[in-house]
Amino acid sequence: MKQVPVQRVPLALALEAVHEQTTVSLGNAAARVDSAPDKKVLEQATSDLLARLAALQDAFHADGRHALLLILQGRDASGKDGVIKSVYGAFNPTGVQVAAFGPPTALELRHDFLWRVHQVVPPRGMIGVFNRSHYEDVLAVRVRQLAPVSVWQARFAQINHFEEMLHANGVVIRKCFLHISQDEQRARLLARLDDPTKNWKFRVEDLNDRARWDDYTEAYREALTRCSTPDAPWFVVPADNKALRNYLVARMLVDTLESLTPSYPAMQEAVRTAARNFT
Ligand code: AMP
Ligand code: MG
Description:
The protein is of the alpha/beta class. It is built from twelve helices and five strands. It has a five-stranded parallel β-sheet, sandwiched between helices.
C-alpha cells in the first residue's frame, strides 16, 4: 500500500451498526451529536482519513478480491450528494462507480425491483456508491402507496437474500442512513428555493414527502431494523452537521477497507523471468 503519513486525530466518535443496538433512534435529537468536536478538528481528521482511503483504494483495486458498495439513503437534502462529493472525491475516479436511482422507468417497472439494481453493482476491484437504492422499494413505494402492502412487505426478505448473495460473491456492503432533523431539512430546502443554482434539485414530490415525515420515519425504522445484518450492516449517520457526517462516513469506510487487508499481488513468475532480459 502507498505509504501516507497520517496524523490521525484521535476522535472517539464512530458509527455502530443498527443490529448491534437495542433500539434505533430516529427522532430529531438523534440527527445531532452535542459533544461533537468543532468543525476545524473534524475537517482535519476527515482529511487524514481521506488520504488513508486513497491509499487503501489503490491496494484494494490491485488486490481485486472484493468490490465495495456503499448504499446511501436519506430524506431530501440529507446530504447524499454531499457525501459522494466530499468523501468519494478522495478516490481515484478510475476505480469508482456511482449509481443514482430515481423513479423506475416503464421498462424497469416491468421487471422485478432488483433488476435495475443488480446491473450496477460494482465488479470486484471497484468501489461503488448508490445514491438511493432498492430500499426506495420499501420506503417511497410504501409511503406513497405505489404497490400493495403484500408486495413491499415481502421485499425485506428478498433484499436480505439479495445482499447475502452479493456478499457471498465478494461484494462488501455498507449502508448509511443520513439522518437529518425536521428543522435542518426545512432550512436546507428553503436555501434550495432561494439559490438559483439549487432550484433544479427541488421537486413537488419533495414537499409531499416532507409532509409524510412520520410515515417515512416508520418506513425507515422497519427497513433499517429488518435489513441490518453482520454482512450488510446499516448505520444511522447523524447528518445535521455536515463536517461530522463526512467524518463518520469516511471513518467507517477506512475501518471497512482496513478490515479487508488489501494487498498488492506478487509479480507473476513469467514477468519475473522476462524481466531478467529487460534492457
Ligand atoms: P433525487 O434523489 O432527489 O434525485 O430523487 C429521486 C426520487 O426518485 C426520489 O423522490 C425517490 O423517492 C424516487 N425513487 C427512487 N427509487 C424509487 C422507486 N423504486 N420507486 C419510487 N420512487 C423512487
Ligand atoms: Mg431530491
